[in-house]
Design a protein that fits this description.
This protein is an alpha+beta fold. It has 2 domains: 103 residues; 73 residues, Pleckstrin-homology domain (PH domain)/Phosphotyrosine-binding domain (PTB) (PH-domain like, Roll). It contains 5 helices and 7 strands. The strands form 2 sheets. Strands 1-2-3-4 form a 4-stranded antiparallel sheet, with no helix packed on it. The protein has a 3-stranded antiparallel sheet with strand order 5-6-7. α1 runs antiparallel to α2.
Length: 198
């Protein structure tokens, strides 16, 4: 079987880390874990007081312990400068909701959150080649050079001026040298000249 090579771009610009957006995702994940933990502990207490034998009530005590353990691990990762991911804990919580009476809706909700967390936390990038400009958002956004008036990178700010009067301005994550700026701007100008001829 022959695998197709992934598309190669001439330039990939990493944009500034959207701190507020990523913090909001973390807060929502933590809130979901806290709600699940409290609910499971209360369910475990009810089952224990009802005298139900077997391991089901033990699971409702064990799941919050696993959730808090992962939460602490994520906190330690964040304090070391790494991006925390709560998806494993959200999957465990989804399993807990599946065991919970009439908890299927919440199980699906937590599973969706677990699946979407990592793609939502991908560092934003804009890729450029001779055919198009691609944003790695969800879903990915593609802009043809025919739709663009101008593209310029100056003072670590990427500006894309579209023909529909939309202006996209993004801060670049790393320091860009004057030489790299000039090369990139010359590349974009060449693509715009080719697009205007078509």
């Amino acid at each position: 079987m022959i695998a197709r090579p992934s598309k190669t771009f001439d330039y990939i610009i990493v944009l500034k880390y959207p701190v507020r957006f990523f913090k909001a995702i973390d807060i929502i994940s933590q809130l979901m874990l806290a709600i699940a933990s409290v609910t499971f502990i209360l369910r475990g207490i009810v089952l224990y007081q009802a005298g139900i034998s077997g391991g089901i009530y033990t699971l409702f005590f064990l799941i919050p312990i696993l959730l808090f353990t992962w939460w602490i691990w994520c906190y330690r990762q964040q304090s070391r400068g790494y991006m925390p991911f709560y998806r494993f804990a959200l999957m465990i919580a989804a399993w807990g909701w599946y065991l919970y009476p009439k908890g299927l809706f919440f199980a699906i909700l937590y599973l969706i959150a677990a699946v979407l967390e990592k793609p939502a936390k991908v560092l934003p990038e804009v890729a450029f080649d001779s055919k198009e400009i691609v944003f790695n958002s969800i879903p990915s956004k593609k802009i043809s050079w025919l739709q663009v008036n101008n593209v310029i990178l100056k003072d670590n700010i990427l500006t894309i001026d579209l023909k529909n009067n939309q202006l996209i301005q993004k801060n670049v994550d790393a320091e860009v040298s004057e030489k790299e700026e000039a090369e990139f701007n010359a590349f974009c100008a060449a693509q715009l000249r080719v697009a205007q001829k078509n």
